Amino acid sequence: MFKPRFATLLVLCLPVLIPFFFTPAAGAAVAPTPATATADPLPRVVIIGDSIAAGFGLDPEEAFPAHIQRKADEAGYAVEVVNAGLSGETSAAGLRRIDWMLRLPIDVFVLELGGNDGLRGIDPEVTKTNLDGILTKVKQANPEARLVLTGMEAPPNLGAEYTDRFRAVFRELAAAHDLVFMPFILEDVAGNPELNLPDGIHPTAEGHRIIAANLWEYLAPVLREVSAAGAR
What we know:
Blueprint: H1 4-21, E1 23-24, E2 44-49, H2 51-54, H3 64-75, E3 80-85, H4 91-101, E4 108-112, H5 115-120, H6 124-141, E5 146-150, H7 160-177, E6 180-182, H8 205-229
Parallel strand pairs: 2-3, 2-4, 4-5, 5-6
Antiparallel strand pairs: 1-3
């Protein structure tokens, strides 16, 4: 997930690149800006993440946020899914750009970050502080927003002490924020060569379908409630 030179380029070009990445998932309506927002916009589901959400190596329509939009459409849930995934994103980078994403209201917020922190061996306490900061900012800006957190696992070569602490970070955040928690975003996908690209890290198109199916189990009840509440 972490590409050093690419990540550096993103930092330098972030003001230009962000508008291109903060986009609706395939099949969703274009997210309105404050100047063009309609009177009754659909409830907005924002998925902020790293290369997993961004669908690294795939067409955007094959990434799991696009599958979530299609599942919502098929279920009759009137929501707009926005894919705010950025390849190379760390928890610190997510915290830096969250204010930009809070320019518009958010009804459901899905946080899929932390994987690159684990790959880089970042102190789990730092990761926890950053993710906590993101969740806190979202709640402050959107008190009624429903929060969903997806967990991640650190590479085993970092040792049992690190991987155990890293795993615990997500559980502690879930308990502290009383949110919907999916323990492992790559459940049934990680470690399977047939479901990952040759790099062994990023899911294939089929891997993303499995991710979406697993996440849907947690997300569907939330979207049902939000959709039933109607447009803002």
